[in-house]
Amino acid sequence: MTKSAQGKAETKVSARRKKIVKYFRDVVSEVRKVSWPDRKELVNATVAAIIFIVIFAIVVGIVDLILGQLLKLIT
Question: Which one, of 17, 37, 13, lies nearest residue 25 by Cα?
Fold first, then answer.
């Protein structure tokens, strides 16, 4: 490689490194801006999600049982 080609390669690597460093600095800056939920909000959201999942599972199970019984009647 010639010196000019080597210099261009180093410049590309340096520019890429600067972009990566800038990206992570921006990420840290954005994470600091996030409004994190307190413990009570987190527990409430978790309980709501679990209740929704259980209800949805029950509904899907009931539909599955009904469709299974219908298929038994047909066959």
Answer: 17
| pLDDT, tens only, 27-48 | 999 999 999 999 999 999 999 9
Q: What angle do CA 23, 24, 28 make, to 5 degrees?
A: 120
**Would you kindly state where each structural domain of the chain is located, as residue ranges?**
1-34, 36-75
Identify the residue whose tokens are 């413990």. 39
Name the pTM for this structure.
0.57
- Asked if 37 and 45 count as a contact pair (C-beta separation under 8 A), the reply is yes
> For the chain, first and last CA: distance in Å?
76
Distance CA 68, CA 74 (A): 10
Model confidence at 54, in pLDDT bands (50, 70, 90)?
A: very high
Using the structure block, give the residue that is written with the tokens 């959201």.
Answer: 45
